[in-house]
Sequence to fold (291 residues):
Amino acid sequence: MLPQELLKKIRRVQIRTSHMADDVFAGHYHSTFKGQGMEFEEVREYLPGDDVRSIDWNVTARQGKPFIKRFREERELTVMLLVDVSASQAFGTHEQLKRELVTEVGATLAFSAITNNDKVGLILFTDRIEEHVKPAKGTRHVLHVILELLTYQPAGRGTDIAAALEHLNHVLRRRAVVFVISDFQDDGYERPLRVAKRRHNVIPIVIRDPREAILPRVRFAELLDNETGQRLMVDTSSAAFRDAYHRQASRRDEARRAMFLRLDAESIELTTGESFVEPLTKFFRARERKG
Fold:
């Protein structure tokens, strides 16, 4: 039996995210993510206006008149959420932790998937694989996914995106839509990401907090690396230090964007304390235009 407070929290996430999935993203999601291919349905006699490229010449030869093959789209997809739950996700300075934003985004995508009768699965990772929820359908299953996103206590603290992608490539045989949700504070994952992109429709979702790029001027402040536990006392009144901090963050962001560009991986960047509706909608619309 789940505690009453946790049940209320799950219910709040469900109400907020299922509403967005139904009212905001439903049409965009369906148009953006097509089925896995075309499934044969029937052979029928040719009618004026039918595409001549669909003619089944074998049946036509046997029957002495033209017949065509009809296909229907395989609509069912598998959507996998590959979610970073490392210690850096516990950071947030705009009344929202990065992990809270991850939960809302993941829940919205999950509800969008089941609204379209698709399967949704979940892999939680840190510097190891923490949890693997196999893809399934239905509201009950999505509520289980939300529970894991809200409450899972990881054993690891670091981030190993390469290992997470390699695990995904090993366990997910059928082509899927994969949302990699992380702050991407890691290196060395370009090759496994390239491999994953060959097999799946991979969409990186970058979770950021403004203070990771811009420090306020508050005199002395202690900076803590949640993943390593390292602490550093800095003087934020120094303009030179603040500029150097910002330049380093910008270089990291530019390197990540350049890598995604090399791999043709269209990413979505989300910021704590800001609505994720517009960036997701913009992404879906851009994908729709590309067909």
